[in-house]
Automatic annotation (TrEMBL):
Oxidoreductase is among the record's keywords: no
Organism of derivation: Cylindrospermum stagnale PCC 7417
Gene3D superfamilies cross-referenced by the UniProt entry: Rhodanese-like domain (3.40.250.10)
Descriptive protein name: Rhodanese-related sulfurtransferase
Transmembrane domains' residue ranges: none
UniProt keywords, alphabetically: Transferase
Pfam family of the protein (one): Rhodanese
One Gene Ontology term of the molecular function aspect: transferase activity
Keyword Transferase tagged: yes
Domain Rhodanese: 19-108
Top-rank taxon: Bacteria
Signal peptide as annotated in the record: none
Amino acid sequence: MSSSLLADVHDLKSRLEWGQPAFTIVDVRDRHTYNYSHITGAIPIPLDDLVSRAKSALHTERQIYIYGEHDAHTAHAAQILRESGFADVSEIQGGLTAWKTVGGATEGVGA
């Protein structure tokens, strides 16, 4: 059974705090933006490399949470992954901004 296509930052933060790490967070923003600040533990896969890198790095059954520059960017990236055979992709609504609003942990030079 698939989870909702849209992920709430509160739910994601709770899963991390309760130690349920059976998922991967993917940041599809450019490398400079990722290096400045990103969700703790997120892996950087720029949109241009998304399909090739995701297929080599992630199992298609893995639960993936994804975020980009804005919700439309995130939705586009999620659609690309779904079309590439990834079964469980959730979009982090509001991305990094929403994550910071709920006090989610971040890393990077501007974190």
